[in-house]
Specification:
It contains 2 helices and 4 strands. A two-stranded antiparallel sheet has the order 1-2. The chain has one domain. Helices cover 49% and strands 18% of the residues.
Length: 131
Amino acid sequence: MTFDAIGVAGTGLDTHRKWLDALSDNIANVNTATPAGQAPYREKFVVVREGVDSPGVYVDGVEESQAEGKRVYDPSHPYADAKGYVQYPNVDLGDQMSMLILAQRGYQANAAVVDRAKTLYESALQIGRGA
């Protein structure tokens, strides 16, 4: 039972770490402009699935948003097109920061489960030794 808890929490740790990686990429590129004619940075989403043969959650992959980038009028920008517009990703910093908090808390919760299960296992070993 204890090892199951560690294993399930371990899959949660891995999933939340990959989610944090995707969010950090999104946040780092929130203001990345692209020249006209090039595709803007696309927001990344982690696709998660439930374990089939073993309990836990697993990352199925990372997908990119299909949302169009936003166009901002800034004729002085070096990437501005002939009409003075610059392409930016359609990534909302507020949304990313909210999801970052959720991902951090999920990671912390799974780490706490691993820590508590480890403590429980160590206590069971002590009882088994007759200490």
